[in-house]
């Protein structure tokens, strides 16, 4: 079957940090996760935008909690896209959230063979970038096989680094895994982390934001070719100046790279990584 | 008459029980993702059923079953929620056909197993299956008996799933199932629903705890006799404690109660029959031990410990905060015995270690200790506390000693260190004329300035260190250090791009230690 942007839809969840997707592409939908402050439940990026979320996070007495969309939420999105022959539903790593399990339940319930559920093994803008790579193929015409290969290569090759102001948020949400080895918040230490095979892993820790930034530069130089087709994503939690600096870095180091997305980390990732988090993502897709 | 109000009340009972236990179940959650949300997910899933029933106008039982099933499925969150929705589906489908409780549980268990790709034992799957098996054995079962059977099944889960045993917990989803059954039983028995939980203020990784029972001893008695009257025994035991369960048949009763007076329980039971077996456990100790085990299991296992020689209370805190698990007090002279270093290496549970001597005179003792150690040890030849801290920043406890050595050498290359102290005599070290009592400034171990004012010496040291491009400067104030405000203000004016950290190190002999990287 030949897949195109006219007959194939893409569903991501709100942890892809790509809220403008449906306005940019008519074949995209975003299914929100939930963020709860006490007994108040909000749909991530729908009822609670990032700016409001970080404002509340600064003053909240108790940390918010998050939960995945229900199968019903996914079922509604899939129903809305019933006119498409194929739906790729691309989600945050199943090791970090139950979102993909919810999507699978909804898909099993729908029993339609139009649905393909993809565990991206990653998070945030990296999910959006995988969706965009699929979209580029749809726009020139593609097949399920080609998309399967793309997903496999993306899992293997896409690079990402992020740094958090403190590991406390990751630890609290149980998402810290082996990154716990970098615990220690003295002396303005910044842990540099990545996500591999769906898990948060430690890379190293350095002193201060400038050194963290230089570590990004080093990894970016080592991990990318200086060639057209290099795609970059930048995401920050309430730290636009850091995102700005990263964009300048990309322009300087890899002038031919294209910045796919620059985005604010939504409430769900924001809850688990904490304010001040900056993420940097790349994928070579000539 | 429609059974809708009855079913709504049943679900409300289950929901209230889950609500009361939500936090406890969340804390049990270590499998499959230790994200502490099983209680919340189960509660939200059951809330979905309650909401579906609120909207329902079903009259026939089959329609009710359909609404319940759909409500659970559509609200299912988390692995536990999804499995629960399958359990609900199985049970509802069977109950739509008959009142046979054992058949309903069997159907629930079958649906749950079908619902997961790779069934794992020691989870709520096991608990629903074993509860169904108990129901078939008892036939017809009562709800309190099923609660007891499910509870026993949950208690066996650590034997079936290693991760639970390591963490010293039972399966969270299974524990949730017990609460649901408990809530249903409470409603059917006409007992009041559990009070809504009092939410605690603090949350965090330390919330690894189980609510302490008011009573200290968990007492279990197996009683044999003739025509034992379980209900009568239950009434007699009631005033002695809580969590009371009396189950079994007239020939064999199992009694379980949490009490402060296990002796009274035993006398009472002995008057009714023969005590076949007795178990009394101190729950407060169990709880404390469990908390300890759970915290340990949640902390990552270290491959490599960092052993550091440190002086000053503030510095100890910094070294510990950066992950050095074994600190040796260097004292005023920073000269611990080789044996002290060796003891610290052997004391660390990690299979490998790095040693940070933090003084040129300790490096050889550290090497000596490393040679005699029973495990692989690498000495990082750090010559000062500041180098030691820089080394620790690059330390990663999940890597081998060898791998740490390589990473740390890289990091140390870009670190410059300085110090300010007071000269103890007239001399001319490194070509600088110094009078006794003057402030001495050192950079990388060499005297670079002698000055009458502390600030002047400190500025000269910083000037020298910042001649190279640097990003971060750390000032460690020692014992009886002069105020650092002026030095700090000067740094901000002259070197606005440098990130400055000031810490109270508390080291003797050096009022100021500086590092720049």
Which secondary structure elements does this structure contain, and how are they paired or packed?
The complex is a heterodimer of chains A (286) and B (517).
Chain A: E1 8-13, H1 21-24, E2 28-31, E3 34-37, E4 40-43, H2 50-59, E5 65-67, H3 71-80, E6 86-91, H4 99-110, E7 115-119, H5 125-140, H6 144-157, E8 159-163, H7 168-172, E9 189-196, E10 199-207, H8 208-223, E11 230-236, H9 240-253, E12 258-264, H10 267-273, E13 278-284
Parallel strand pairs in A: 1-2, 1-6, 6-7, 11-12
Antiparallel strand pairs in A: 3-4, 3-5, 8-9, 8-13, 9-10, 11-13
Chain B: H1 4-28, H2 38-55, H3 61-75, H4 78-97, H5 101-115, H6 124-138, H7 143-160, H8 162-167, H9 172-188, E1 217-224, H10 230-237, E2 241-249, E3 252-259, H11 262-270, E4 274-282, H12 283-298, E5 304-310, H13 313-321, E6 326-329, H14 338-347, E7 352-356, H15 363-372, E8 377-379, H16 385-393, H17 401-413, E9 416-422, E10 439-443, E11 446-451, H18 454-465, E12 472-477, H19 485-494, E13 499-504, E14 512-516
Parallel strand pairs in B: 5-6, 5-7, 7-8, 12-13
Antiparallel strand pairs in B: 1-3, 1-4, 2-3, 9-10, 9-14, 10-11, 12-14
Helix pairs in contact in B: 1-2, 1-9, 2-3, 2-4, 3-4, 4-5, 5-6, 6-7, 6-9, 7-9, 14-15, 16-17, 18-19
